[in-house]
Fold each of these.
Amino acid sequence: MLTIHAAVLLLPGGGRAPVPDGAVAVRDAVTVAFGPYAELADTHPAARVRRWPGVLTPGLYQRDAVRLLEEAYFPDPRETDTLGTAPLTGEALDALGPDDTWRAGSVRRGLHRMLRHGTTAVAADPTAPPALITAMRRSGLLVVPGPARAGEPVLDPLAGAAAVDTAIAAPLTAGGRADLAAFDAADEGALLAAGGACCVATVAAGRLVYRGR
């Protein structure tokens, strides 16, 4: 079935101009077309339509995924009162005790947090644990060979970005993998200010893997 994802503003990536009232047509795992919503709706009148608020972009690229999942603990929602919601590192992480008492659940929650930030692709070098690579792929993420960034790992791919283009995994391409993220932000400037935490939906290979509303 063909689905049209529509939003107030589409940022297609690759240096191309934003598309007001833009949309992306997706069939299975593939991007069929993108452009003004009116044109896509006219071409595909029988398509299912998912309309998102704010800005629609290609999926984001997380360069620190392996380090975040290996070096941080993502608290369980039931631990919020005692541990908070932010990933724990350093002394706070050491206080949790042996790795095997927390790692599996933390990895699962960490992957979900990445999807909640619009991430659809992650970097992993050849030394990454095979089990971790498997978990990332099972979550719907595209695993791309590449090193992590220097410095402290950051959950939000948009943190410090001067433009959304620098944080996306790949520009939209007809015939390419259908990876999208929708954000509750009025425009690119508002999105960069708010960061990936304002994500309301993430589509990985055509599948809705996160929906916040």
Amino acid sequence: MIKRPDCSSDFPDRVTLFEVGARDGLQNESSLPTQTKVDFINLLSLSGLKHIEAGSFVSAKRVPQMADSLNVMRAIERQDNITYSALTPNIQGFEMALSAQADEVAIFGSASEGFSQHNINCSIAESLKRFEPVMALAQLHNIPVRGYLSCVIDCPYDGSTDTTQVLEVARTLIDMGCYEVSLGDTIGTGTPLKVAKLIETIQNHIPSNQIAVHFHNTWGQALPNIYQALSMGIRTIDASVAGLGGCPYAPGASGNVATEDVVYLCQQLGIETGLELEKIALAGWMISDALNISPRSNVSQALRAKRLQ
């Protein structure tokens, strides 16, 4: 940890950016050809990223954008120093991830009963029970498992989420064998004070190196929330290049925080990411052009405008 001369907070000297654009981002965008996704991930692989979520093995009926994840993961040009992961909610998904040679898998739960019922049609307790066979298989095959936890700040159905409830579910995921839990502000209503309260509660029981943060930018608070998390020593941040993805509970609103914006923030704080900003932006421009959208990243747009000068 290093002390900044202009503030009283402690920041990590280095952070890990967990790139979720090829999964959490693209699953909320228009469907793309398989080769376009492969080209996108190959570009991301040249940017300095160490973790890329490359696919999702969920129901193709529910998430048709991810139906070709097996073919995508089999076709990408893998770099030796990068972990390519996939979302796997059940045994069938885990077996497909194995076939796709995923280096790591992720399971996803909710800190809110309402969201759990609406999203995966079961209670929180039932969802955790469903993960047990997946965890057993992962242990058998020596595959690391990451846990995603939704609605850690607010829920579109239940309102404000109790921090003790978030802690309870997060601890259960760690106890089950997840090496890390990513705390997700699913509807993007979090603010720095709420984030500080949540992280303080979690850190009293779970080491910081087992906590990641996943902020959506629905209300424009993702970067302030990340700054708050960084000031409390959080070292892993989920981000989506070009801000890919949306918020299904706020039509038209921004979704995932943009990787380019997070990298720029870290650069200005003197925090090492290991990423080349221009290469990240290049991947974002490529996929945005394929989707016929503008990058939802202020930094990306500024870089592109600078190039055109």
